[in-house]
């Protein structure tokens, strides 16, 4: 933990916005250098103009690659485009529009020249494609320009195909490879034109007006829930006021300031400015308002993550809130399919497993990445999909799809519905879950690893693990593929009756991540974490 974690940012912590934007246009990437190539992770291509990892050439090439991809897939409808409040998002959107218009793609940008949250863009794609009238004009897809909760100097560029959610690895690999070819070729195959004649779309109105079909606003109004919403300077900033006005809520936008330096933030655990609404350090200034509201919430820069603050519990651990949300939803959505499953990533808390069992619902456990939930949300076979990093979405009242990307605004509103309907805060309800199922200790740590060791871990088979016990308990499962869909984990997960750990290589640092949990308390968790390193090291040495 950094010594200044949770303290207000100072002048020395802030980026030079003009220099950053200048670097976006002036620095030219060399794709023979790995760090300067287009590379899609679980949430698109990310980087900084300062390090020549997110620059104009990247966006020119990536947008042209997306155009080429959608052509190869027969996608002929409009492309929705939106951006968050990061300093690099606006110039990247301008660059993307140059290419899209140059390729005669029909583009729909925000009607009010406003910021567009990720869930609002996903919602727009699905609304278009699920309407027979608009779909007849061709399937729509979209681009979201955001690095999510990343620091102010970062930029991000994400493609959402017609299913509305994050593109799968086949699509992103194709796009990244094509983009790097275009850069290496001097961008001669990139078509550009002045971005004139771009059509507009009311993302905010379409999203806000439809919320009544997934959140019980009548209950929130009747209970007179006092809501505080902090956009953390992100794309949801104007959405919260619109939700308040549309549904007559007692809702206060705690901080409506948009500042590309995020000078109003408190520093995250590592001393960086990071808009993570699930981090106690990043949310330190927000927590000071906790006693003024029944429910206080935060969102990250593109509003795909949520943070829930209650007067009795403070900032909730994301795993705790997911468990509460799941139990509430599957008890209060009678029109969902009786066989609708509970989706979770395999590094999310096993409290969810116990809740699912008590509800008599099938647990659908998938690898890290929200893209895995997309098919189930689309057809209603998964009622809720959530991941440990405070990202989730769920179905409408009638059991049909809402978004296929994470929706932080939705999960924040759900907290107020839960408080209104149950008369208890989500943190009080989690305490009841603890009384029923036990109190798990959960933590993510890092362990050093060379690039070769990381690569080996990513390929490691569960059968290569020789250990039979973990922290004094018999091992019950050694997984290298997720139980829900048999997709590769890109690492391993080891389980016992009361504990588990998962090890996955970092995509950016010379470490691997160890996620671990124990229902036997913090001391047992520490044993699990220590033995996890030995188990992984032994498997890598013999694998």
Q: Supply Rg.
A: 23 Å
Number of helices: 17
Strand order of the largest sheet: 1-2-6-5-3-4-7
Strand content is 15-25%
The assigned structural class equals: alpha/beta
What does the average pLDDT come to? 96
How many beta strands in the DSSP annotation?
23
Q: How helical, in percent, are the residues? A: 25-40%
The biggest sheet, with number of strands, parallel, antiparallel or mixed sense and barrel status, is: 7 strands, mixed
Low-pLDDT runs: none
Distance between the termini: 34 Å
Question: Overall 3D geometry?
Answer: globular
Describe this structure in words.
It is a single chain. The chain is 35% helix and 20% strand. The chain has 543 residues and is of the alpha/beta class. Helix 2 (56-72) packs across helix 3, helix 4 (118-130) crosses helix 7 and helix 11 (318-332) crosses helix 15 (426-437). The chain starts with 16 loop residues before the first helix and ends with a helix. The model has no long low-confidence stretch (mean pLDDT 96).
What descriptors fit this protein?
5-stranded mixed beta sheet; globular; 35% helix; 543 residues; 23 strands; alpha/beta
Layout of strands and helices, then pairs:
Elements: H1 17-26, E1 40-41, E2 44-48, H2 56-72, E3 79-83, H3 89-102, E4 107-110, H4 118-130, H5 132-135, E5 141-145, E6 154-160, H6 169-184, E7 199-201, H7 203-210, H8 217-222, E8 226-230, H9 237-247, E9 250-253, H10 284-287, E10 295-299, E11 306-310, E12 314-315, H11 318-332, E13 341-345, H12 351-359, E14 363-366, H13 374-379, E15 382-387, E16 391-394, H14 408-422, H15 426-437, E17 441-448, H16 451-459, E18 469-470, E19 473-474, E20 477-481, E21 488-495, E22 499-505, E23 511-518, H17 522-542
Parallel strand pairs: 3-4, 3-5, 4-7, 8-9, 8-10, 13-14, 13-15
Antiparallel strand pairs: 1-2, 2-6, 5-6, 10-11, 11-12, 15-16, 17-23, 18-19, 20-21, 21-22, 22-23
């Amino acid at each position: 933990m950094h010594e200044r974690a949770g303290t207000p940012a100072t002048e020395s912590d802030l980026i030079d916005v003009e220099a950053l934007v200048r670097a976006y246009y002036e620095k030219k990437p060399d794709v023979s250098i790995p760090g300067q190539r287009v590379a899609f992770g679980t949430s698109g291509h990310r980087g900084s103009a300062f390090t020549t990892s997110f620059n104009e050439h990247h966006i020119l090439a990536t947008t042209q690659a997306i155009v080429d991809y959608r052509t190869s897939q027969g996608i002929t409808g409009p492309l929705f485009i939106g951006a968050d409040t990061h300093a690099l998002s606006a110039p990247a959107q301008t660059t993307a529009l140059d290419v899209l218009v140059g390729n005669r793609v029909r583009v729909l940008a925000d009607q009010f020249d406003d910021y567009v949250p990720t869930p609002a863009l996903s919602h727009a794609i699905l609304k278009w494609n699920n309407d027979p009238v608009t779909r007849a004009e061709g399937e729509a897809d979209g681009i979201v320009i955001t690095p999510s909760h990343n620091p102010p100097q970062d930029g991000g560029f994400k493609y959402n195909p017609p299913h509305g959610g994050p593109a799968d690895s086949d699509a992103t690999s194709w796009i990244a490879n094509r983009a790097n070819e275009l850069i290496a070729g001097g961008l001669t195959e990139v078509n550009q034109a002045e971005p004139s004649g771009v059509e507009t779309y009311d993302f905010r109105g379409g999203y806000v007006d439809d919320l009544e079909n997934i959140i019980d606003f009548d209950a929130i109004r009747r209970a007179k829930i006092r809501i505080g919403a902090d956009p953390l300077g992100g794309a949801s900033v104007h959405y919260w006021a619109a939700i308040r006005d549309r549904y007559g809520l007692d809702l206060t936008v705690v901080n409506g300031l948009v500042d590309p330096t995020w000078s109003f933030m408190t520093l995250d655990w590592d001393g960086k400015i990071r808009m993570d609404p699930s981090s106690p350090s990043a949310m330190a200034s927000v927590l000071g308002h906790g006693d003024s509201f029944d429910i206080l919430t935060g969102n990250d820069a593109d509003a795909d993550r949520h943070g829930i603050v209650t007067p009795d519990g403070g900032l909730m651990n994301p795993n705790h809130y997911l468990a509460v949300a799941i139990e509430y939803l599957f008890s209060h959505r009678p029109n969902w399919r009786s066989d609708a499953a509970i989706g979770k990533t395999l590094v999310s808390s096993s409290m969810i497993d116990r809740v699912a069992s008590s509800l008599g619902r099938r647990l659908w456990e998938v690898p890290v990445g929200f893209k895995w939930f997309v098919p189930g949300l689309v057809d209603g076979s998964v009622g809720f999909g959530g991941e440990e990093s405070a990202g989730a979405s769920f179905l409408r009242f009638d059991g049909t799809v809402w978004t296929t990307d994470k929706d932080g605004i939705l999960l924040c509103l759900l907290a107020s519905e839960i408080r209104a309907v149950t008369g208890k805060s989500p943190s009080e309800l989690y305490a009841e879950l603890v009384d029923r199922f036990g109190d798990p200790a959960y933590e993510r740590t890092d362990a050093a690893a060379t690039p070769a060791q990381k690569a080996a871990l990513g390929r490691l088979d569960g059968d290569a693990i020789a250990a039979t016990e973990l922290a004094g308990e018999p091992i019950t499962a050694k997984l290298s593929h997720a139980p829900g869909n048999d997709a590769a984990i890109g690492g391993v997960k080891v389980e016992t009756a009361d504990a588990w750990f998962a090890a996955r290589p970092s995509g950016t640092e010379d470490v691997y991540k160890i996620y671990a949990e124990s229902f036997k308390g913090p001391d047992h968790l520490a044993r699990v974490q220590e033995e996890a390193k030995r188990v992984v090291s032994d498997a890598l040495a013999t694998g």
